[in-house]
Design brief:
Length: 494
């Protein structure tokens, strides 16, 4: 019940593909209050920084620096609130650490590393895309963990490893010394069989990870107590627990999305735009596979039936490129907020790009690739930065609207509304054009949806309450200000 949710504060470690943060969350007068304690940058790092013989294109994560920043953030959190009861970790999906005798082997490779695309045809000589979808229900993406593991076959570290931990599970291990694999994130690897809810033994054996995967745990289960040395370092109580949350960041975000009802779609819009609906069972049909939908697991056994679309990554990479050029030319920094304001006054572009196209997966020189895609589609290259941004916004809104309706159709219902959460929910033009093109209302917010989901699962777990998923979403509705966008056009993509 609602009154059983604890009032003790908890700490959320929220690791995104471009930044991470440590936040404190607590329930005050029936509302969740979040306090940002520490924010830090994240992003791809050239593997040559760690391994001299690596290729220039090889990418990794600065996982040791992330761990240092997490520790700094937790120390600050416990200094502010020594009564923190638990810690929870969520992060991006698919990437992993390999270990041998409790020591990490090499670096955590980045999902945008080009090695993964080379591994796709190798794995598909044994398992076709259709067969993989029938097993794991995942949309084809060249960075899915199964393809990364196929790429590992060219090296010897996988054979030497005795354990594989996904990123949030690795952080949990660093915090507690306990190896567990949280199942919402496990469902993004391609190694989890959607029909049985357990590891797919044939795939696991083929990819060389038999006996190396940790036991599965559900969101809300306790991983273990904070290690004594870390407790002393943070000034924390020895009783602080590390709790498995919905550790795939999108799973946490959807858990805290205040869906209006069973006919609502969600768009978790950040670096990626995850567009989908919540269903009781996976959709494993050939049609769903051909259309590129994915089945990932969520809180309380829900299935997140969705499609991955490149999201604000197109915007952030474009601005990053322009600022690199501005720095070389000794010019002032480009601000995305200024470009968005300019773009809002421009007419609707007639030629769009496909944000789902694989040509937009890699970083670097994004404006050049966007301009090339516009030319290829029969348009003319944008003359200004604002024009390019306008094309990106319209293309994202069009994809969001189309895929939300398609997801609803696979779920067997007509779409009633769309909820946009995450950083993209602050984009007025994006939200309004999504509503216009979908022909249904858009509800925007909350922005900190991932952290909210992380905190709510912890609060429920620490108090051992019986709050349902809808109870948690009711808390979200009370806790944040939501903005409604009504469609201004009769156009409906159905």
């Amino acid at each position: 019940m609602m009154n059983k949710i604890t009032h003790a504060p908890v700490a959320a470690i929220d690791l995104g593909a471009t930044s991470g943060r440590v936040m404190i969350g607590e329930l005050v007068d029936g509302k969740v209050q979040l306090t940002l304690v520490h924010r830090f940058a994240n992003g791809p790092v050239s593997l040559t920084k760690f391994e001299a013989d690596a290729c220039a294109e090889d990418l990794a994560w600065g996982i040791d620096e992330l761990w240092s920043q997490i520790r700094l953030g937790l120390a600050k959190a416990f200094e502010l609130r020594p009564d923190i009861a638990s810690i929870g970790v969520d992060s991006w999906a698919v990437d992993y650490a390999l270990q041998k005798d409790g020591q990490r082997l090499g670096q955590v490779r980045h999902y945008r590393d080009p090695r993964n695309e080379l591994a796709v045809p190798q794995l598909e000589t044994k398992f076709s895309r259709a067969e993989l979808f029938d097993r794991n229900g995942l949309q084809f993406l060249p960075f899915n963990t199964v393809y990364q593991l196929q790429a590992e076959q060219r090296d010897d570290r996988l054979e030497a490893a005795d354990a594989l931990l996904l990123v949030p599970d690795y952080i949990n291990w660093l915090l507690t010394g306990q190896a567990r694999c949280e199942w919402t994130n496990a469902s993004t690897t391609g190694l989890l069989n959607q029909r049985t809810g357990t590891w797919d033994e044939e795939l696991v054996h083929h990819l060389g990870v038999s006996g190396k995967l940790a036991p599965l745990v559900q969101p809300g289960e306790t991983i273990g107590s904070l290690l004594p040395g870390l407790a002393r370092e943070f000034g924390a109580s020895a009783s602080v627990q590390v709790v498995a949350v919905a550790s795939h960041d999108t799973a946490s975000a959807v858990a805290a999305t205040p869906l209006t009802g069973e006919k609502s779609a969600y768009i978790s819009c950040g670096t990626w735009g995850l567009v989908g609906v919540e269903l009781p069972e996976p959709v494993l049909t050939t049609e769903a596979q051909i259309e590129g939908f994915t089945n990932e697991l969520g809180l309380d056994g829900a299935v997140r039936f969705l499609k991955n679309i490149t999201g604000t990554f197109l915007l952030s990479e474009s601005v990053s490129y322009w600022n690199q050029q501005a720095s070389l030319d000794a010019q002032g920094e480009v601000q995305l907020t200024d470009l968005l304001e300019q773009a809002a006054s421009l007419p609707v572009p007639q030629i769009l790009i496909d944000p789902q196209n694989e040509q937009f997966l890699a970083p670097r020189k994004m404006p050049e690739r966007i301009s090339a895609a516009i030319l290829q589609a029969g348009g003319t290259a944008p003359e200004t930065r604002a024009e390019l941004i306008r094309v990106v916004i319209e293309s994202l809104a069009s994809s969001f609207a189309t895929q939300a309706h398609r997801a609803a159709r696979f779920g067997g219902f007509e779409l009633a509304d769309i909820h946009i959460v995450g950083g993209g929910s602050q984009g007025e033009l994006l939200c309004q054009r999504t509503a216009d093109l979908a022909g249904v209302p858009v509800v925007a917010g909350p922005v900190e949806c991932t952290a909210l989901g992380n905190v709510l699962v912890q609060l429920r777990a620490v108090s051992q309450g019986a709050a349902t998923s809808e109870d948690l979403r009711a808390i979200v509705r009370r806790s944040v200000v939501l903005r409604d966008y009504q469609p201004d056009s009769a156009l409906k993509l159905a």
